[in-house]
Amino acid sequence: NPQVAVVLVTVLLSYFTLVFGELFPKRIAMIYSEKIALSTITLIVAASVLFSPFVKLLSKSVGLLMKLFRQQDYASENEYYQEEILSLLEVGQEQGDIDESGKEMIHSIFEFDDALAYEIMTARPDVYMININVPVTEYVDELLEERYARIPVYDKGSDDIIGVLYMKDFMIEARKVGFDNVDIRPLLKKPFFVPESKKINELLNELQLSKMQMAILIDEYGGFSGVVTIEDILEEIVGNIEDEYEDDEPKMEEIAPRTYVIDGLYYLEDLAEQTGIQLESENHETIGGFVMDLMGEVPDEDTSIEREIPYGNCVFRILSVRDRRIEKISLSFSEQEAEPDEKQE
């Protein structure tokens, strides 16, 4: 039967083509990858050059058709390769070749190019600063207690950053003239100003080229918004780097079933990741900012403590306030609460 013969020939040709034309050569190439790569690289480069005009023609033709039909490519070539690598990571982790920390680090590298400076900065209210007009005797004890290596110094106001004091220089000068007699003006280094919207990969390159360790971030209105150090940038890849003097990161503790005590600076994103509780805000990134948005007013140390703010099936209770900012808060749920991964509107 001619029709059966055509089917059999097609099946057999497909089988032999796949096995001997693709799968077997690919398996051999994986075993002797370096040797085969070195022996075929010249041929591959020559073929790439020879066929590049045809490849460009086909690519332009497809792009033109996409525009004619008002369609947009769902992903760029780089995004395609990124997804491919991430898929290989998943396979590698399942097979035990890649551990969780290695996987997270590679994920962080892909996200690195998209992160902006203001997303990782130490925000202005948390930056320890010195007023150049205040005598050193009034803050020397606090200065030594804080143990920061680099400290922004301002003049007329906190938006008027005039320099950065290196504690190394301060200690050298203090040894010469005594702590109470140090004049910090000659010790100040020129501040490195950057817009808060700068990408952190670009910022890292600029800091390295300028041999600076800290950048002063400026918002769109010309005001001081925070600082970013090289350590902050590297932490985006390798995770948190703590030294013996560094304060702990904002924490969350479950003190009873579905009842939490949370630092005000705890990120909503981290809360969702740890508990499945989705609290979305267009204006704030932290739980303290989210609750302040619900309050509709600035928290006060005298009147806001123990205040309860209901929200859906949960209740926030302010535990402590410092410098008009919620420092610690409790979060509890009613018995009729939604599932942890249900989104709170």
Provide structural commentary.
- By secondary structure, this protein is of the alpha+beta class.
- It folds into 3 domains: 78-112; 118-238, CBS-domain, CATH 3.10.580.10; 252-344, Uridine Diphospho-n-acetylenolpyruvylglucosamine Reductase, domain 3, CATH 3.30.465.
- It has helices spanning 2-31, 33-68, 77-94, 100-112, 117-120, 140-146, 167-177, 200-210, 230-238, 268-275, 287-295; strands at residues 122-123, 130-131, 150-154, 161-166, 193-195, 214-218, 224-229, 252-256, 259-263, 278-279, 308-311, 314-322, 325-333, 343-344.
- Strands 8-9-13-12-11 form a 5-stranded antiparallel beta sheet, with helices on one face. It has a 4-stranded mixed beta sheet with strand order 1-7-6-5.
- The longest helix has 36 residues, at 33-68.
- The protein is extended.
- The model is unreliable at 337-345 (pLDDT under 50).
List its traits:
single chain, 345 residues, alpha+beta, CBS-domain, Uridine Diphospho-n-acetylenolpyruvylglucosamine Reductase, domain 3, five-stranded antiparallel beta sheet, four-stranded mixed beta sheet, 14 strands, 19% strand, disordered C terminus
